[in-house]
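---------- Forwarded message ----------

FYI, see the Tetratricopeptide repeat protein record below. Original note from H. follows.
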Amino acid sequence: MSEATPETLVIEFRAAEQLLDARDPRGALKLLDTVVAAHPENTAARLLRARAFFLGAQLRPAEMEFQTVLEREPDNAFAHFALGRTLQRANRADEARRHFRLAAALDPRPDFVEAAAFDPPQPT
């Protein structure tokens, strides 16, 4: 097998995006493993890899990748939201709620706010 070049890594990353869109997380992971091995600091590749783990129901690896992304980008609302979904799927609702709320605070998108399940304001 030939050595990965920057060009082939970009091609593999884009192909992994397409495979994930086509709901083929295993295929995406095969390509992303090469990209992440070559550039472990690449947050975009790690986020895509986390999504592939999640879609493939590999919750522990997904959780670890989302946490790695958040260590580097603590203000990444999508990563908080996706980690919340991962924890929710693993029946860890209290932990999930924290990340849903962080996501909604960072980016008040309707799906983030709905997942955060903030208590309605009480009449005064």
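H. also flagged this: The two ends are 69 Å apart (CA to CA).
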